Structure prediction request, 227 residues.
Amino acid sequence: SYVLTQPPWESVAPGKTAVITCGGDSLGDKSVHWYQQKPGQAPVLVIYDDADRPSGIPERISGYKSGNTATLIISRVEAGDEADYFCQVWDNNNDHVVFGGGTKVTVL
Amino acid sequence: QVQLHESGPGLVKPPQTLSLTCSVSGASISSGDYYWTWIRQPPGKGLEWIGCILYSRITYYSTSLKNRITMSLDPSKNQFSLEVTSLTAADTAVYYCARVTTFRYMDVWGKGATVAVSS
Prediction:
């Protein structure tokens, strides 16, 4: 089955930049989507199709993909950005949704 | 504004069957523009996809769960449902329903329903 790999955590000081990666085989052939999940809440879509932002998501949150790695960037990090972040793709071979294991972002 | 709301029992005994319903408002589940999906999250762990159902009632199920799950639609109530059989403690989780766009991402989520499996 298809696997997406994320680092388990990322620590960042306020005002700095958080960088979260998501890797997978042939990821360049797939669209990558990102979700933010704060404690006790449902996930929220923050990036879709590698780099597009839904309405209401601040421009500080951006995404891009290069080769087999997708990256979520949170600029000028605030305390409110502390959350778990999950990447997701659709595995066409198996008609499955696949999530990465998630990255916990801690604001120091 | 589209909203999804999960409902079901908070506690189920093993090896009983879990039945969950997702009520949709602000959109029709009969629309061909979207899929409807269930995702769960065990305590302290990541997101696990369970399956999807289309308006045509075509279903896609997780390989690891396909022998124990059934998804269905009720257009008259604008709801879709999930059944999970032969429950064990490992099925304890928050269960989310969500809408899936044709581009295969979840744009609207319910708040989640907590399910504990315990005797």
In short: Chain A is about 0% helix and 45% strand.
